[in-house]
Amino acid sequence: MRRSLTAAEALAVVLESAGPLPLERILVRDAPGRVLGEDVVSGRTLPPADCSAMDGYATRSEDLRGAAEASPVTLRVAFEVAAGASSGSAIAVGEAARIFTGAPVPRGADTVVRQEDTSREGETVLVRVAAPPRENVRPAGEDVRSGDLVLRSGSRLGPAEVGLLASLGRSEIAVHQRPRVAILSGGDELVEIDGDPAQGRIVSSNSHSLAAQCREAGADPFYLGIARDTPDDLEAVLRRGLGADVLVSSAGVSVGDRDYVRPVLEKLGCSLVFWGVRMRPGHPLVFGRFGERGPLVFGLPGNPVSAMVTFEQFVRPLLRRQLGHSRIFRPTLRARLAEDFRKKGDRLHFVRVRLEREGAEVVARSTGNQSSGVLRSMSLAQGLLVFPAEESELRAGSHATVQVLDESFFAGDEPGF
Amino acid sequence: MRRSLTAAEALAVVLESAGPLPLERILVRDAPGRVLGEDVVSGRTLPPADCSAMDGYATRSEDLRGAAEASPVTLRVAFEVAAGASSGSAIAVGEAARIFTGAPVPRGADTVVRQEDTSREGETVLVRVAAPPRENVRPAGEDVRSGDLVLRSGSRLGPAEVGLLASLGRSEIAVHQRPRVAILSGGDELVEIDGDPAQGRIVSSNSHSLAAQCREAGADPFYLGIARDTPDDLEAVLRRGLGADVLVSSAGVSVGDRDYVRPVLEKLGCSLVFWGVRMRPGHPLVFGRFGERGPLVFGLPGNPVSAMVTFEQFVRPLLRRQLGHSRIFRPTLRARLAEDFRKKGDRLHFVRVRLEREGAEVVARSTGNQSSGVLRSMSLAQGLLVFPAEESELRAGSHATVQVLDESFFAGDEPGF
Fold first, then answer.
1. What's the rounded Cα separation, in Å, for the pair A407 and A411?
2. Among A38, A245, A258, B150, which residue's beta carbon has the most beta carbons within 10 A?
3. What is the reported pTM?
4. Closest chain B residue to the Cα of A6, Cα to Cα
5. ipTM greater than 0.95, yes or no?
6. Under an 8 A CB cutoff, do B303 and A101 touch?
7. Which helix (H) or strand (E) holds B298?
């Protein structure tokens, strides 16, 4: 077991431990947010035939030569083509077909005149504009041709991809599985959310924030419960999580004073990979693995902020990688510091900061008390300021890297038009 | 009914039509992404007592005066305080209590020495450092005091808020309801995803992309099906959606040639508010409302890109407002144009663009064919370039506003440390 790694070393070790999970087949409607695990080749040509991009009249561009407001051309309306109709009929010289958006352009016609540029009079229509060939006509295959590689394996699936897959008649696709994350808490002082907080007992709130962090990352958390401070109880709870892809404990799986934790993990087949990361909050982080089968194991610190921050730095990137994403980290930006930041010691610090836009810049301010027990400060923070290990002071007015945790930070106050 | 509004006028009309939806009570575990509808006042003090921030020894700072590596102080270990234990016992002069993170500091003690700075020898412990009072002690109420306003109504709930609410013993909270969005398609040419695409029929893919857009916005879509091109069928399908907050049709509820659409809507009690927005794609947009009861109605154009773009511009901001969000728009940024963009006419254009970072700048390139039938181009696009109505050319090298559609655009390639 390695000890006291830098955060970068620890992250490298964690990310080496897993790649994208195997594939599963899901319904396209459930695809948003998932990562495609196959190349998708179209079996269809879309649109299947030349079709109208407008409601109007399909006709021959030749017949409209010279048509204008003052000198409209009169055509006979031979028939109507609704969207979804087959294009059996043909128009002849001097004729037009009433046509609707998406309907196939009938044989004989090579252009479509918008309804707005016409006046219908019984069986005839007056056209007040000329139109070149192919005007308002969507050619067959404009969107997709049969045999096209439409989506590559590794693509992130959003609404457009879902629509595209549906348009190809694909109701099911292969995506990388979502990591199942088993969450447990450890400690005799913990009660569930509806438990009695008498005598200094506190709610096992970490299991809630960690489960929410898992969901936000796109993973699938399940909660094992609270392990009491005995080897037997810890073993019993851990065993229920061995089918997970990742097992996340806050406190309880520390390698500190409770001597039974490591033997219990080893008895179950887990080998500890590292213990201790030179960062604050979050130093007493433990990472282990179960060899080929069994979950990767994170023993996060018990303090609420430490648990959330270590999840952010190590568990979230791992989960994003398991989901198949190529860009697995939070957005970072360079923020101007509104105040001085100081620290002692040579650990990397993650400082909870509020972020505000000022013109083209983002300005960072401390949320205040940086004690790792002050969960409220995580709620106030939009980001984590990365305070490098080797620095002891970051001056007001200088710029530093901030990880943006609040997904809504980028949302706009204005529509942009 | 107003006609041919600017996009800004249309957006203003839409947003005037609704505020945040009424409240519902949900489990805290389901809260992420929702918007709080009540002020949350703490009924608890957290931590409930002065407690240890470390595993180590609680003792009297006075007794450690002068302690150092070379001159450790020896203390008698009087008892052990586990987390969750009550702090009944007290330590006396020359004594220490073994203590674990989160455990209450026993009476008599005023400081905690980290385990790493001590050596245990049977019933005694050698302490190799001095410690001021309150070192490694989290004072009672450091996080929250009973009576504190912890979260304000209107707060967006994320993992930290979920943890905070859990720590207060709150298992249920009031949030704004999620808008239920009824989705229908209209047209005889449409088939469901598993339908037969013979004779020019196409899959009703808009219902899939729009449902995904709803989910991405945080709303709750349900699918009414395809209305065939008859008044009776349209009425039957629409009736099933009258209980929704928002009704979104793509095609079918146009006010174009099919004369029965407007009478059917009016028969059901819907009054049309506007028809036509001076934008491209998306001009034939219809917006209506049912008075006090009944859904707001959007008739989106049938072309796949037009449907998605008009959803983005009008439906999504409305849904975000109904959810209670204060910042309801997509992120926008100023991008440098990698090529010339030209347009004819005096409509606002939304141009699908790829976005790439180049140094501190974001560079925008067209996805190519901007036909509103090319759904594939929406899949290639990370953003929509806002091409102002009054401009006819945007030059390569100049800067323009882009709405960022791809949520993962901001994700990082690097962890930031």
1. 8
2. B150
3. 0.94
4. B417
5. no
6. yes
7. strand B296-300
